[in-house]
Amino acid sequence: SGSKLREVFDKINNLLSGKPVQTEGQTVSVTQHPQGLEFVCYKLAEKFVKHGEGEVSFHHDSAFPIAVVLSGIWELHPRVGDIFLAHLHKKCPYSVPFYPARKEGTSVEEYQRMLGYEVHDSKVEEQDHFLKRMSGMIRLYAAIIQLRWPYGNKQGAHPHGLSYGWRWLAQMLNLEPLADLTAMLLLDFLEVCGNALMKQYGVQFWKTMFFIQKFYIPRIEAVTSAGQMGCLSRLKSFVQKCLQEEEIPLPKGILTPSFWRI
């Protein structure tokens, strides 16, 4: 509920502002240690990314409440936003977007980590699990760029707004596609913030959608094997339907004004 989110937001904001905060029966404050604020900013940013790869990857709708709190905190405490991006880019290089190339002398294990895979005792996580985590983080990122904390100062600009989403999309379409991953990332991104980008960029956005359908999807097809067509098929039908109806649906789980009245 909106009231519950406000509680969470106020607690985080108070902690970052140096006020004493009650947690688990004790009072804590960042002023208790010279590096207290730095530590809290770091751990908080890390936690938001973990929500993306965990919570959001399993429950897509949860991207919006998490993103709106982060967006508001980012506005008041830019350091948290900077560190969040650093964590996000390290865990999910595709949020840059960037496909790391393997350099000479880099071990297979190290390279897998650079690509975002989790490696434990030389065992690489399964592809399905990897894709799910990347999907969660991209969905969280796509939710952040379009949301603002409703009780903040509306005068200033969004600290990381839709122009970053537009840039992400343009850069993504300039990269050579990868099987499995590219189709999923594009679909996740367009499902979550396609509607907001459509409203902001109008004709330019529709030109981009046409480019995806006519030129980019065939390039994804060229690198995709028969067993990896699932996500590509979903992307294809999503883009086709949007172009036919000249409309991008609102994302499932978006926070409506009534949400904040509860």
TrEMBL record:
<dbReference type="Pfam" id="PF07817">
    <property type="entry name" value="GLE1"/>
</dbReference>
<keyword id="KW-0813">Transport</keyword>
<dbReference type="InterPro" id="IPR038506">
    <property type="entry name" value="GLE1-like_sf"/>
</dbReference>
<keyword id="KW-0653">Protein transport</keyword>
<keyword id="KW-0509">mRNA transport</keyword>
<dbReference type="InterPro" id="IPR012476">
    <property type="entry name" value="GLE1"/>
</dbReference>
<keyword id="KW-0963">Cytoplasm</keyword>
<dbReference type="GO" id="GO:0005543">
    <property type="term" value="F:phospholipid binding"/>
</dbReference>
<keyword id="KW-0906">Nuclear pore complex</keyword>
<dbReference type="GO" id="GO:0015031">
    <property type="term" value="P:protein transport"/>
</dbReference>
<comment type="function">
    <text>Required for the export of mRNAs containing poly(A) tails from the nucleus into the cytoplasm. May be involved in the terminal step of the mRNA transport through the nuclear pore complex (NPC).</text>
</comment>
<comment type="similarity">
    <text>Belongs to the GLE1 family.</text>
</comment>
<protein>
    <recommendedName>
        <fullName>mRNA export factor GLE1</fullName>
    </recommendedName>
</protein>
<keyword id="KW-0539">Nucleus</keyword>
<dbReference type="GO" id="GO:0005737">
    <property type="term" value="C:cytoplasm"/>
</dbReference>
<dbReference type="GO" id="GO:0016973">
    <property type="term" value="P:poly(A)+ mRNA export from nucleus"/>
</dbReference>
<dbReference type="GO" id="GO:0044614">
    <property type="term" value="C:nuclear pore cytoplasmic filaments"/>
</dbReference>
<keyword id="KW-0175">Coiled coil</keyword>
<dbReference type="GO" id="GO:0000822">
    <property type="term" value="F:inositol hexakisphosphate binding"/>
</dbReference>
<dbReference type="GO" id="GO:0031369">
    <property type="term" value="F:translation initiation factor binding"/>
</dbReference>
<keyword id="KW-0811">Translocation</keyword>
